[in-house]
């Protein structure tokens, strides 16, 4: 189901890449080999291999790789419940993502506050962070598929954010270091260089600690994922293979 991919991507996009956030596979031990797309009145699961490679659930009906799967009344009811409960879970997952974005933005702002940046740089940084946060919130709200959050896509967005924000901070710190050096305060110049280095190497670990606040919210999703796994348990594709849309580990 790759909600974990969506969750991780959303939370590290504003952290300038490299953040390995807690996700559903780590906290709830939930995983899937499928991507999920929400379409009008139906759920579409797809993967490259093995079969079934495309599973469509719509109002108690099941199609796998283009073939209609005959279902008894009990299985139809289970699929209807599966569809309804999964759709109810999606906004809850998105809410955790949005909270993660806000935590990341606040963390970046607090890191910047500790650098004693000039007022103009602080104002511009706040503007850029707010713009990126609003954009990411909008992307999360509009997303109807985990295909939107594949690794390359998330990495590209993170790099885009980093290329917009990092030079702004680096330029301000560089100017401060240059001014200190020219005034003969080599100790201050060295301290500024150390601050810049720590921002590069230490921020990710500090952000991961901040994101621990999300753990209870992620844990609250686990019972719903377990319920989905139970509802799809035993359902089979047209060729008799188990669907295994969602797998729960221990």
UniProtKB/TrEMBL annotation:
Signal peptide extent: 1-21
Alphabetical list of InterPro entries matching this protein: DUF2884 (IPR021307)
Keywords, in A-Z order: Signal
Short name of any one Pfam family annotated for the protein: DUF2884
Protein name in UniProt: DUF2884 family protein
Native organism: Dyella flagellata
């Amino acid at each position: 189901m790759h909600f974990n991919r969506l969750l991780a991507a959303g939370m590290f996009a504003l952290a300038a890449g490299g953040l390995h956030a807690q996700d559903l596979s780590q906290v709830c031990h939930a995983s899937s080999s499928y991507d999920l797309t929400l379409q009008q009145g139906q759920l579409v699961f797809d993967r490259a291999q093995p079969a079934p490679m495309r599973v469509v659930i719509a109002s108690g009906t099941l199609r796998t790789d283009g073939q209609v799967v005959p279902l008894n009344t009990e299985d139809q009811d289970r699929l209807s419940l599966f569809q309804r409960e999964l759709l109810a879970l999606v906004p809850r997952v998105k809410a955790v993502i949005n909270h993660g974005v806000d935590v990341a933005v606040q963390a970046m702002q607090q890191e910047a506050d500790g650098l004693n940046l000039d007022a103009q740089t602080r104002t511009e940084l706040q503007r850029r962070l707010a713009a990126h946060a609003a954009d990411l919130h909008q992307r999360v709200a509009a997303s109807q598929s985990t295909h939107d959050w594949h690794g390359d896509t998330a990495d590209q967005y993170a790099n885009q954010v980093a290329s917009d924000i990092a030079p702004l901070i680096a330029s301000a710190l560089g100017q401060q270091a240059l001014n200190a050096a020219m005034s003969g305060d080599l100790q201050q110049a060295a301290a500024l260089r150390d601050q810049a280095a720590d921002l590069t190497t230490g921020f990710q670990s500090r952000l991961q600690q901040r994101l621990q606040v999300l753990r209870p919210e992620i844990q609250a999703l686990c019972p719903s994922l377990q319920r989905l796994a139970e509802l799809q348990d035993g359902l089979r594709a047209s060729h008799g293979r188990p669907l295994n849309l969602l797998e729960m580990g221990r």
